[in-house]
Amino acid sequence: MSKIIVMMGAPGAGKGTQARLLQERLGLPQISTGDMFRAIKRAQTPLAEEIRPFMEAGGLVPDELTIRVVEERTAQPDGKGGYILDGFPRTTTQAEMLERLAAAQGHTIIAILVDVPFDILEKRTTGRRDCPICGEIYNIYFRPPKVDEVCDLHPETRLRRRADDNPETVARRLETYERETKPLLDYYAHTGRLHHVDGTRTPEAIYAEIEKAVTSAK
Ligand code: ADP
């Protein structure tokens, strides 16, 4: 049966990196609400103005708007064989909506928690950089580019740091995660659909474990 793979984890846990690997190797689309909201925020539209304050404060975009964006994106034909959700659901209301969506689309849900201790998360986020051309993700502490602040594959391009990866906003995002999103882990665990993976190992080792969980789930 086709699956919705829900990637869960605190900010900086590496769920985006794993979602990208799953997309490349399983051929399922990666649907990242964070990426979609960042793209919306860059445009000069009323919608951009609406979401900016929430994102810049390290809070959540309101459920109603988030759900609308996810409904539209997952209705695209590329999601027919299943898809990977990165950054959604993040609240109980969103999780309830996903149950209805999965039933309507004929998909089963599997949730993967990429688990990383709190003290590592801060360096993961504040050190994170990405290439605006290819989206490759670096970290100045753990995975630096060959030359400071430029992409290995696009040497003419300076890496960027996300607006919300500054220390103050990171602290708020971690609080928001604890309060709003962590309770969802119990919800998926109680329904037997949560797989824990140790997110402190190498991306390849983490990936191998996730792929095994995904392919053996019904
Ligand atoms: P993180 O690295 O914190 O997991 P993301 O890239 O997934 O960040 O998301 C960046 C920001 O976009 C969040 O801090 C939040 O403001 C907004 N956002 C992303 N997904 C959701 C969602 N499902 N519900 C509400 N807001 C969201």
Briefly, what is this?
The protein has 218 residues and is of the alpha/beta class.
Structure commentary:
The protein has a single domain, classed as 3-Layer(aba) Sandwich (Rossmann fold), CATH 3.40.50.300. It is built from nine helices and seven strands; from the N terminus they run βαβαααβαβαββααβα. The chain has 218 residues and is an alpha/beta fold. The protein has a five-stranded parallel β-sheet with strand order 2-3-1-4-7, with helices on both faces. A two-stranded antiparallel ribbon has the order 5-6. Bound molecules: adenosine-5'-diphosphate. The site of adenosine-5'-diphosphate has 17 residues, from helix 2 and helix 3.
On the 0 to 100 scale, the average pLDDT is: 95
Strand order of the largest sheet: 2-3-1-4-7
Number of helices: 9
Helix-strand pattern, N to C? EHEHHHEHEHEEHHEH
Number of beta-strand segments: 7
Whole-number count of domains: 1
The biggest sheet amounts to: 5 strands, parallel
**Helix content percent band:** 40-55%
**pLDDT < 50 runs, ≥5 residues:** none
Percent of residues in β-strands: 15-25%
Which small molecules are bound? Answer: adenosine-5'-diphosphate
* Fold-level CATH name: Rossmann fold
Q: What is the C-alpha radius of gyration, as a whole number of Å? A: 17 Å
CATH class: Alpha Beta
CATH superfamily: P-loop containing nucleotide triphosphate hydrolases
User: What sort of overall outline do the alpha carbons produce when their principal axes are compared?
Assistant: globular
